[in-house]
Amino acid sequence: MKISVSFMLLLLLGSVPASESVECHLASAPDIYAALRETTASLVQLKVDMAAGIAQLKTEVDKLKKQLQVRQIAFSASLVVEGTSRTGPLPTETTLIYKYVPTNIGNAYNSNTGVFTAQVRGAYHFEWHFAGDNSGGSAGWLVKNSQKVFAVYEQQASGWVGVSNGVTLLLEVGDVVFVRLVASSLVFDNFNHHTTFSGHLLFPM
């Protein structure tokens, strides 16, 4: 019985043409090519996505760098670059223009106008110092926009006078801060830079 079954299987296998057997093996080849094409397309798309992601990341990094630069704000200035200068007394209050600017990180201080302009909302600290002599009192205001904030004043019968003050202010973008000399008073400066105006951003808000 076993012999007859085996013989029948051999007959059936022998009856299948050789060409059909080859076709069965070759039938899987198109599937492989399709899979390769799909994989290649996926790799190409992945490369495109990665390039787009890298470009977006670079844009974000550049944006953060610019924000960091804006938040680096500090300046110091005195009235004259060289020589000797007495400013005042004058008939009206006058904005002092500090021409010698050794430090102006962020370029928020304008040496042509004497005005500091806030570039970012935050807390700022300012200090100003007046030097004078016995020919007249030395007095002035720190002004925020049009508001007088803190004053300095000193007068004595003889010798040199010096007076300082400082303040921390919350500024909005575009707010301006400057120092104004009181009418009928004076300030003195020379190459030693006695009369000064300084400020810096403490922290953004």
TrEMBL record:
Gene3D superfamilies found in the cross-reference section: 2.60.120.40
**Where is this protein chiefly located?**
secreted
Q: Identify the PANTHER family for this entry.
A: CEREBELLIN 13-RELATED, CEREBELLIN-RELATED
Q: Which organism is it from?
A: Perca flavescens
Q: Where is the C1q domain?
A: 68-205
Q: Which InterPro entries match?
A: C1q_dom (IPR001073), Cerebellin_Synaptic_Org (IPR050822), Tumour_necrosis_fac-like_dom (IPR008983)
User: A Pfam family in this protein?
Assistant: C1q
Task: Give the record's keywords alphabetically.
Answer: Coiled coil, Secreted, Signal
- Its protein name is C1q domain-containing protein
| Protein origin, superkingdom | Eukaryota
Q: Where is the signal peptide?
A: 1-18
Its cellular-component GO annotations read: extracellular region
As for subcellular location, the record says: Secreted
What sections of the sequence does the record tag as coiled-coil? 47-74
